[in-house]
Amino acid sequence: MDVFLDMTGTLTDMESENYALLKLAEEIKKRFSLNLTEEEVLQRIENYRKPYMDKRHQEYTPIRFLILEAVKDIVSKRLCTSDSFWIVDTYSDIHAKYVKLAKNALEGLRRIRKIASHVGMITDADRPFTDKLLNSLNIKQFFDSVTTAEDVGVGKPNRRIFEEAIKKSSSSPKIYVGDNEFRDIQGAKNVGMIAIKIGDDSKLADYVVKDLLEASKIIQTLEKE
Questions:
Q1: Cα 200 to the chain's mean position, in Å?
Q2: Going by CATH, does the domain composed of 2-14+100-224 fall within 3.40.50.170?
Q3: I need a surface site. Which of 2, 23, 34, 77 has the fewest CB within 10 A?
């Protein structure tokens, strides 16, 4: 049995993810003495990112570079090299500092690790960001493989990112756990995986659960079949 997990909203707590983005906006505001609120800075960044993020399943642009370009668009002066490096590094550093695991995620991950032959991650994120966050959350050791959208050049639900991840494993069945109906569940079903959705009802998922711990219990029953 091989189990693959989404990261944002599945393993991580969305409230802490959103707080990290607000803290990033706060640091950008301070660094460049912007006459905007933190919320306005964040909204400008999100508005810049949105068209690229909406088509990430067709072509993936690393998020750190989107944030860099968004800040260039906000700041009235030309950025020096040190400013550019600061923006890219701060994006990962802030998330590593503030993002927390979702409720019951650690216990669920521990249970899955005991059951599965292969535990992998499939995430719509940058490679450096993902590595730093896994280290800060102290969960990197649970994974046999990590496949990012930056590695493959496309995000979910594109078949390519799922197929690249699956190549790294060798047993069956293949199970995927995620929280987004379009990117996670549709993508997993497109390649024949058993799909478990965390959160609201789903028209596509095989199972719907409230958190990763509950997902691990479903996975355990599948292992016995």
A1: 18
A2: no
A3: 77
Residues contacting 13, CB < 8 A, separation 6+: 99, 100, 101, 102, 103, 105
Residue 223 has pLDDT above 80, yes or no: no
Structure tokens at 101: 């695991």
Kindly report, residue by residue over 201-212, the tens digit of the pLDDT. Answer: 999 999 999 999
Estimate the share of the chain in helix, then strand, then coil, as percent rounded to the nearest 5.
Answer: 55, 15, 30
pLDDT score at 78: 86
- pLDDT for res 225: 61
Q: Do the Cβ atoms of 88 and 112 come closer than 8 Å?
A: no
What is the C-alpha separation between 62 and 196, in angstroms, rounded?
A: 27
Q: Domain coordinates of the chain in residue numbers?
A: 2-14+100-224, 15-98
86-115 confidence digits (pLDDT tens)? 999 999 999 999 999 999 999 999 999 999
Tell me if 155 sits within 8 A of 127, measured CB to CB. Answer: no
Beta strand 145-148 with 118-123: parallel, antiparallel or unpaired? parallel
C-alpha to C-alpha distance for 148 and 145, rounded to whole angstroms? 10
Task: Decide if 2 contacts 172 (C-beta within 8 A).
Answer: yes
pLDDT at 77: 79
Please tell me the distance from the alpha carbon of residue 19 to that of residue 94, in angstroms, as a whole number. 10
Instruction: Determine if the pTM surpasses 0.90.
Output: yes
